[in-house]
Design a protein that fits this description.
The chain has 10 helices and no strands. The two termini are about 20 Å apart. It is globular, with a radius of gyration of 20 Å. It is mainly α. α1 crosses α8 and α8 packs across α10.
Length: about 230
Amino acid sequence: LAPLIVGTLKAAFYSMLFAIPVAALGAIYCAYFMAPGLRAWIKPSVELMAALPTVILGFLAGLWLAPIIERALPSVLLFAVLAPVLCVTLGAFIQLLPRTRLRVLPDGWQALAMIPVLLFAASLANAYGPSLEHAFMGDIRAWLRTQLAIDYDQRNAIVVGIAMGVAVIPVIFAIAEDAISSVPARLSHGALALGATRWQALFLVILPTASPGIFSALMIGFGRAVGETMI
């Protein structure tokens, strides 16, 4: 029983570590900042991901994703660092632009500007990941074995976390997005009328009101992560 229990909890932990930021922050943006036209495409698409059978996700993770991560492990780890750094940098740069330049993308459609940034981060990670590996570690698998006493296995917790995270994200996203959308508009309008910014209204009014629904989304997502033994 010990390997089953510990392995299940370990896999659920890594999947929630991957799914919570993506699903919760995505739900917040979709419900509060995204334009209605874009939301009409994004929300159903994410919710359709919940229909993917877990046996298919487990098959793809074990036979397709695991060899890719094994071949490009340094690039995958480098992308996990570069993607948020470049996205935050672009967001800070956009805030410094004059308001006339900001009107190029209509309000609520700014997320589309992140797509080329993520593609650029992926290309940088793919180009410089092997070089950084050879410069600092030699071979990352041998380095893990000698420095951290970790034997690298092709089907590891990173692969499981990503695959189970893909299964958990739609559940958390759908419930959290509905909880945020159900907050009466008069609360945010009242906060804005009193001089609060949109972020202040979000953190001080919207999220405290929707917190029970968001907590329920996280608990249901954790329950699905524990139950996805097929993956």
